[in-house]
Amino acid sequence: MSLPIATDENDSRLLKSRLPSKTLICGGRRAWYNLQCPLRKGIIYYRLWEKIFEHDLYSSSENEPRMIATLRQVSMSISFTLIPINRNRILLIGKCHEESYYDDDYWDYLRLSIHGIHSYRVGPALWTYDHYGHSNIFELQPMKSTTNALGITFGVHSESHMELFDISTDAKKGSYPLVEAGKLNYGRKLNKRVVLSPDRHILLHANQNRETIDVFYSGTGDTDNMDFSFVTHVSIPNPKGTNRKDESHGAPLLAFSANGAKFAVATSDGVVWVWDVRCKIPLKVFEADMPRDKPWSPWGLQFSSGILGREVLVFMAYEASTDQYLIHLIDATSFETEEILWLIPEPTQGNKFDWGIALFFEPSGSSMYASRGTTLYEWNLRKNTGPEWWLEET
């Protein structure tokens, strides 16, 4: 079995070891999708076709993996997400958008189900909505809420605002369970690349010219009904001199840190910037060796929670010079340390085995996971010992 790196296992300031602490190969070498770890370290969820499985990497039980739900198989574009909610429960969201090959018709599939959590494992569904229809559910953006019993609400972006919806578990069986809960007014027309800070008071918008990020702010205390005001825009530096206005370049990726104090931007030419929300000048710039003839944005851009493990910023990029996928792991406190992990495929897969690529953390931020093809890897981060841990390192 090949390892995704080939360097000294102890040569890391961010990881306990550069060697994976766990490696899992999907049974039967089948295609798995939507890998995630919403509850605790080592318990992974993924989809094999229409079936959703739960797998404890640290269990030797013959019952692993365990199927927890079945979606209606609509097409390969079907996806699911698991989100912890109030009262020790978890929400499963399954969705798919399909367009007809023969006319302009389309349809959507939406599965919502609430499950109990027992010893960090997902239990049977306590409530379920599972239907086809015509709606904008494929654009639902989940976010935390303090104004409803479940502790979660959903945003649907429009040009000038974002409508908020809550889930009504009291709705008549079979009726649409999403009910209007509020509205976030932008104050101007924006495209779809909009991201809210965790507390919803800061809104970022990637301008269509791919050269600036617009920053909006709302100081109102009612997070379900907010009016945002334009504050400023920050210019996205272009160290490679790329013509980002070319249609082949996608919109920049945006990500907030867990506390909302920092945000990162990644462009399709492989450049990543980090800003403090209080400053227009980037804290740091990172460059990946991306192919110039095929603009391909880094993906998986995200900050870890930094609760137990050290807070890091990660993204994955395809490196043109080596024809490999690289994980960039960056200290998100000082931004002075960057480490790279090579995500090398299994020998039987070859370099072009590019499906099943994922990058994610467990909730406390103590472990990071990455997959390529049929193989999943786990790395453990060093402990977060305080806001100035990096100064104490020797």
UniProtKB/TrEMBL annotation:
Gene3D superfamilies reported in the protein's UniProt record: YVTN repeat-like/Quinoprotein amine dehydrogenase (2.130.10.10)
SUPFAM superfamilies, alphabetized: 3-carboxy-cis,cis-mucoante lactonizing enzyme
Keyword set, alphabetical order: WD repeat
First and last residues of every WD repeat: 254-278
The protein, known as: WD40 repeat-like protein
Organism: Laccaria amethystina LaAM-08-1
